[in-house]
Amino acid sequence: MAKSKSADLLLIILAILIRFVAVFLKKGVGKDLLINIILCIFFYVPGIIHALWVILK
Predict the structure, then answer these.
(1) CA 40 to chain centre
(2) Nearest-angstrom CA–CA distance, 35 and 53
(3) Residue 46: which residues within 8 A CB-CB, separation 6 or more?
(4) Dist. CA 39–CA 6, nearest whole Å
(5) Which residue pairs from 45-48 have beta carbons closer than 8 angstroms and sit at least 24 positions apart in sequence?
(6) CB within 8 A of 56, min separation 6: which ones?
(7) pLDDT (tens digit, 9 = 90+) per residue, 7-52?
(8) CA 48, CA 18: separation in Å to the nearest integer?
(9) Helix crossing, 2-17 with 19-27: angle to 10°?
């Protein structure tokens, strides 16, 4: 259980710094990654919010 929490903490830190990498590590290549890349290109904060939502969901 502690390993999962530490992995989630690492993903949360990545979501703040490098959003699309965190989404890729959590979900792989797919629609969530594409949505996050588009949000990161056009908007900064919604990209972070989306990455955190995907990780914590």
Answers:
(1) 11
(2) 12
(3) 39
(4) 26
(5) 47/19, 47/20, 48/15, 48/16, 48/19
(6) 8, 12
(7) 888 888 888 888 888 889 888 899 999 999 998 898 889 989 999 9
(8) 9
(9) 140
